[in-house]
Amino acid sequence: MRVAVIGASGYTGLELLRILLRHPDIELTAITSERNAGRAVADVYPAFRALLDLSFEAVDPPSLAARVDAAFAALPHAASAPVVRELVKAGARVVDLSADFRLRDPATYAAWYGEHAAPELLGQAVYGIPEFHREALRTTQLVAAPGCYPTSALLPLAPFLRERCIDPGTVMVDSKSGVSGAGRKADESLLLAEMAENCRAYNVGGAHRHVPEMEEQARGLAGCEVRFSFVPQLLPAVRGIATTVFARPTRTMTTEGACALLEAAYLEEPFVRVLPPGETPSLAAVRGSNFCDVAAVVDTRTGMLVLLSALDNLVKGAGGQAVQCFNVMAGLPETRGLLEAPFVP
To answer: pTM of the prediction?
Structure first.
């Protein structure tokens, strides 16, 4: 299948290239970057030398649509929607990794990101967590790949929302991310001298753009309004998100019972690994892979349910999950091109 990666010079785009190069059913046909148009990919990023014989090109939706069957759009928010609109109109399948199609309500999108350039597509996009929306992904033309923070929070939380065994007004999420989640850009606050031996919160108090995305998906899972108190933090690491979710159970719950609920929910899922009672997720165990490790503990002293997860923000939190969604869309085995062991060490 002929595939394009649009916006391939950012961290997510580069991760997509790394994954797609080993995918046996994909032919990389076009790779775009406005800044690097006309330059060989291997000249700009030597990691791809002897692996990829293509040059970056400028984004031209009509030309791309004539040459590809599917596209991964890794453009910035707002810049993605006009390009995606043209590709969808031309009949291409699209997995969009920006936030442009994650929210179904144009007013909510406008409140967080500004006016939407293709509002008619909002209702058509399927939110791309296969563990939640697999059947809808099979027939859609447009996938909205989720944010990395929402993926890390929703995967451990979803079984408890579905069972309605937690108070939806008590959900608190603390997530710590590697700096690659901030994107490939010049930012003094992300310099090594600023981040080494450091950890700091940002966009606290409900100010992070992933909050409405989390709440919209949680509402669909729980069948009622769910409010998130969300604190994102930056770690002195390149990859990975470690998330802790706190919620108050509405019925008596034990650690063993909470773990059993997770195990039952994800028994058949290839990329969600439920850890046994007493084990907690580790970034080192998921780095470079499409796995999300999850665990549950009940704090017997306070009665609070504590859910834990770890994933690679560039893989299960971005490019890997996008390819997982593409596999479902294309009728391919869901694990195709993705069963890569985590980096060790």
So the answer is: 0.96
